[in-house]
Structure formats: structure tokens, C-alpha cells
Specification:
Strand 5 and strand 6 form a beta hairpin. The longest helix has 14 residues, at 266-279. By secondary structure, the chain is of the alpha/beta class. Strands 2-1-3-5-6-4 form a 6-stranded mixed β-sheet. The protein is globular and about 55 Å long. The chain contains 11 helices and 12 strands.
Length: 280
């Protein structure tokens, strides 16, 4: 009988996580003897949890809010994305060494590759709304794909300026009131803020000023069509919801722990959409 491979997602709180449904689907689909469980770990207990990961039989796991920055400090080795973003969302062992990576940027890019092919071909101009951890991952992805002009809009301009300094030339910081004047030549508009989440009807910017060829994406996936995406769709623009980012960011971890690269397909998306609708 094959040995059971154990992985997890930990956060605080964690009951809302869809990761067990995603990984459970893949484990069943590929017939892998494995488990993937959600574990609520309080911040004061996180370092001890990570230190005991191996002795507790885990091959690795995912890390979510509020532990991503702490995980980045605790691992012995980090991938390039984790180093630049300053956060770890995936843990695994290599030759007994605890490693950490960040797959959020790859998940963001893969979602656009899937639903808006060619989105990065002209290495153009992007406006990113928000300056938190998710914005860092988005900026890393945009830099990796060659975007030359990235405008970060945030309520606290100093935080946007920190990101601009961190990512360097071509990244600029702006206040929300400047946003309408930034949209006229934009190829991609990305919302990384909580606006539009859980029935919040506010939108960060009006997409009316965007060019006809602009793409609008929102990393929020509850609801799937946020007010920003609805306004962009009515405007006739290409829109990409945030669920695909969640699905695609899970791929590298599953491959590391269970040895099989899984596929994000319509069946998985239907499963998670149904799960979200049941919970709402």
C-alpha cells in the first residue's frame, strides 16, 4: 500500500479556505494516496508549527493570512518570487532543507494566460489598485512579463511609494484622486483591494476612461463578478475574474508534494464555483 503523503493549508482563520477542495479534487482525480487538510494556527504558534512540520509527517503545505511574511523569515531557502515579494505561501522540503516559495504571482499570470491570451505581448502599461501583499505579487508578475509602465494607486500614497521604490524604474505611486487621469492609455487594470468583496458595491475606479482594448481583472473572487468587473463588462471590455488565480497558484505546491503536475480545467472551476455558491 502506498505511503500517505500529507500536506496542509494553515492560516488564522482558515475555515473559509477553498484549498482543501482544490487539492482534494486533484488527489482523487489522479488516484494519489495523499491528504490535504486545513489547520487553524494562531500567530503565536506558527513558528513552532513550522519547526515541527517534518516530524509531524508533512511533506509541505500552503500558508495564508496572516502567516505569509513570518513564513518568509522562517524558511532556510526561498525562491526568487518569495525573495522579491517578501512573503511565502508554499512550503516544501529539499534534501531535508525547508524551502519556501510564492506562487501568487505565477497564479495571477497563469489566470490571464488562460482567460486573456496575449495579455502581456506588448509589455505595456498597467494600473494596479492597492499596495498590499497581493499587489506585490501582481507587480512581480508584471515585471516578469516585461511591463514597462506600472502605476500603483493606493489610498495611502506612502505605501504605493514603497512598492515603487522596491520594484524600481517604471513603477510610480499615485493617490486615488489621480486614478481617472491614469487610465487613458492603459492595457491592463488590476484591482488588488477588498473593494467589491462580500457585497461591497463600491468600485475603486470607473473603467469608462479605459481604452477599448484594455483588460480588467480583479483578484477578488467572492463575488465572481465584482462591481468593477460588471462595470467593465458593460463598457464592453475584456474581464478576468480572480478565481483562476486561486486555482493556478495551487498547481506548483501540489506538484512538489505529490509528484504530479495537476491541470486547472473547467471541471475544477465548476467544483469551486459550486462550493462558493453553497457557502454564500
Amino acid at each position: 500500500m502506498a505511503e500517505l503523503i500529507k500536506a496542509f493549508v494553515c492560516g488564522h482563520p482558515i475555515a473559509h479556505s477553498r484549498s482543501p477542495a482544490i487539492h482534494g479534487h486533484w488527489l482523487a482525480r489522479y488516484g494519489i494516496a495523499g491528504s490535504y487538510t486545513a489547520i487553524d494556527v494562531a500567530p503565536d504558534d506558527f513558528a513552532d508549527f513550522v519547526r515541527r512540520m517534518g516530524e509531524n509527517g508533512y511533506a509541505g503545505g500552503n500558508v495564508t493570512i496572516p502567516h505569509k511574511e513570518a513564513a518568509c523569515r522562517l524558511v532556510e531557502r526561498r525562491d526568487q518570487a518569495a525573495e522579491k515579494i517578501g512573503a511565502v505561501n508554499t512550503l516544501w522540503f529539499e534534501d531535508g532543507v525547508l524551502c519556501g516559495g510564492n506562487t501568487d504571482a505565477a497564479g495571477f499570470a497563469a489566470n490571464l494566460d488562460d482567460l486573456a491570451p496575449g495579455w502581456a505581448e506588448n509589455h505595456g502599461t498597467a494600473v494596479v489598485l492597492g499596495a498590499g501583499g497581493a499587489a506585490r505579487a501582481v507587480l512581480f508578475a508584471l515585471r516578469q512579463r516585461g511591463y514597462r509602465d506600472i502605476r500603483v494607486v493606493n489610498r495611502t500614497v506612502a505605501r504605493a511609494a514603497e512598492l515603487a521604490d522596491h520594484f524600481g524604474r517604471g513603477v510610480t505611486a499615485h493617490a486615488p484622486e489621480a486614478a481617472p487621469d491614469l487610465l487613458g492609455d492603459v492595457d491592463l487594470l488590476v484591482n488588488t483591494t477588498a473593494l467589491g468583496m462580500h457585497g461591497n458595491t463600491e468600485i475603486a475606479v470607473d473603467p469608462a476612461r479605459l481604452p477599448d482594448n484594455a483588460i480588467v481583472t480583479d483578484i477578488v473572487y467572492v463575488p465572481l463578478e465584482t462591481p468593477l468587473l460588471a462595470a467593465a463588462r458593460r463598457r464592453g471590455l475584456k474581464t478576468v475574474d480572480g478565481l483562476g488565480m486561486l486555482l493556478h497558484q495551487a498547481v506548483p505546491g501540489f506538484e512538489r508534494w505529490f509528484g504530479r503536475r495537476p491541470v486547472v480545467d473547467a471541471e475544477l472551476r465548476r467544483l469551486i464555483v459550486g462550493d462558493l455558491e453553497t457557502a454564500s
